[in-house]
Amino acid sequence: MKSKIKIIALSMVLAFSLTACKSNGDSENFNEGQIALERHDYREAMEKFSDVLEGDDSNKVARDMYIQAMRMIKIEDYEKNEDYEKALKEVEKVLRLKNGSSKIRKEAERKKSQLETRVENLIEEQKERKQNAKESAENNKDKVESDALHSNSSSSHRPSHSKPDDDEDDKKPDEGTSNGGENSENNQSGESTNGGNSGNNQSGGTSNGGSDNSAQ
Asked: Which domain holds residue 116?
């Protein structure tokens, strides 16, 4: 009977010792996890809190700290990609956690203010780019219309060219005048020549008459 009591007592001591060791291990992992979380070593923190939750999945503080570490990793990734709207949503999820590190919560509040400013600036930049694009499109449209009007105006003021047939008809009277001038000159030349011959004939008549008188 006494031996059975001793065995039971020894079992209880061993169980208590194992529980105490496990509790000490969980406590150590919890403390190391919190330190890692608050120095922004989020992946290590997640590993430590994961070990704690394996031993006690009802530990709400360890669970929220695990979620804090996971969300902060996402926030950093979104900020690197300049996706500030998604980063802001993750910060708001961190702030909704009831438990967790108070230091990380304060950092999340400051981060929220910074991200809200960045999101507002981003929205303003997008509006400005749209407005500039709209004004540029309108200016280009006005320029195209102005160029088209200028082109049409220049075309209407260009001098018209005569047709080839009209040029040929205009040249015909000049050619006739030229021929007429040549014929007149030829006629005058012919009259002068004929007149010369007449003079020669008269001279010849006189000479012949003199010869006749001498013979008589």
From this structure: 12-134
Cβ contacts of 53 within 8 Å, gap of 6 or more: 59, 62, 63, 66
Dihedral sign from CA coordinates of 33, 95, 113, 119: positive
Number of domains in the chain: 1
Tens-digit pLDDT profile for residues 30-66: 999 999 999 999 999 999 999 999 989 999 999 999 9
**E strand intervals along the chain:** none
Q: Is residue 90 part of a domain?
A: yes
Q: Sign of dihedral through CA atoms 88, 93, 98, 103?
A: negative
Query: For residue 216, what is the DSSP state?
Result: -
For residue 22, tell me if it sits in a domain.
yes
Helix, strand, or coil (residue 56): coil
Backbone angles phi, psi at 59, to 5 degrees: -75, 100
Helix axes 102-156, 60-80, angle to 10 degrees: 20
